[in-house]
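Notes from the 1:1 (GR / supervisor)

We went over the backlog. Supervisor wanted to see one worked example end to end before approving the batch request, so GR pasted a single chain during the call. The sequence is below; no edits were made to it. Supervisor asked that the structure be written out right there so they could see what the output format looks like.
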Amino acid sequence: MSSKRQQSPEPYWLNKSQMAASLGISVQAFDKWGVKPVAKIGRSVYFDCRSVLDLKLAELEAKQQSSQPGDDDMGFDPLLEHKREQEEYLLTKERRIGQQQKNELAARKVVPSEFAIFTLMNKPS
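Structure output shown during the call:
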């Protein structure tokens, strides 16, 4: 049996420029997608929506799988925001304590430890 090649495109097949226009992208962008044609009649190449949809769904699925955390990588930490807030709180607390110590030193309520050690070491006997 000899297989007869189809000489006219199916009504739902679109050529490259029609497909790009229906997707709202340029022909060059459609070329970069790498969609496999469903038929080639003479010099005309035809695509169907199913092949474009399958390609884009496969890309989306691969992207989602690669972005999901596995056993070996850290992935998204659900407590990240809480940890950040905790670190910010601790930093603010340390700054407050440091400023409080500077204020006490400026008000002469305390003396620097270096000065206290110097005076105690040079105390006359």
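Supervisor's comment: The helical segments are 16-23, 27-33, 49-67, 80-106, 113-121.
Batch request approved.
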